Amino acid sequence: MTSTTVTLVELWPLLRRRKRFLLLSGIVTALLGFGLSQIVPRTHTSEAGIVVETRPPGSQIVPPVEVDNIVATQEDVLRSRGVIEYVVQELHLARSPALLPDLRLP
Q: Is residue 105 part of a domain?
């Protein structure tokens, strides 16, 4: 069994011989597509459903969280080194005269 490969150099004369057929096929396809797009209506219909769940008043989806835990978490975040360094840098607190220690002799 032999394998035949066609190179671009060998394919070019074939395409040149069939150029009228290829060009005519492209034009006919484009015209058919354009004509079909003019005939087919440009409307689209779809349907969707919405499911609404009703819950009795006072029911909670998420269990309640203790307020003490929330406050403790926020306090931990505010006291973290990263937040403190960011605030000092953004507000230039390291150079603030009101925060610099007084270096006076006693």
A: no
